[in-house]
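FORM 7B: Structural annotation worksheet

SECTION A. Query
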Amino acid sequence: MARRCELTGKAVQTGHNVSHAKNRNPRRFLPNVQKMSLYSDALGQGVRLKVSAYALRTVEFRGGLDNFLMRSKDADLSIKARRVKRAVSKKLAAAETAA
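SECTION B. Predicted structure
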């Protein structure tokens, strides 16, 4: 199971533990990824995604999942998030044509 955020692409990074004597031992920096259910206003339902705490703050700052997805690049999103983005854009386009 990959430790990767489905919205921002934030993943595991590698580095070193450095002791006082400057001995370097390899280590991994793990992102704070949680399984969350985020609500989509356009779809009217919750979407379950693996999201980092950083991405969750950004989603709330941008005004919800729909706004976040519309403003993000497809290259940064996972396949599941791209499908949600496509469904949201279809719903928004249908709402515009109906109005």
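SECTION C. Observations
The chain has a mean pLDDT of 94. The helical segments are 53-61, 65-71, 79-98.

SECTION D. Sign-off
Analyst initials: ____
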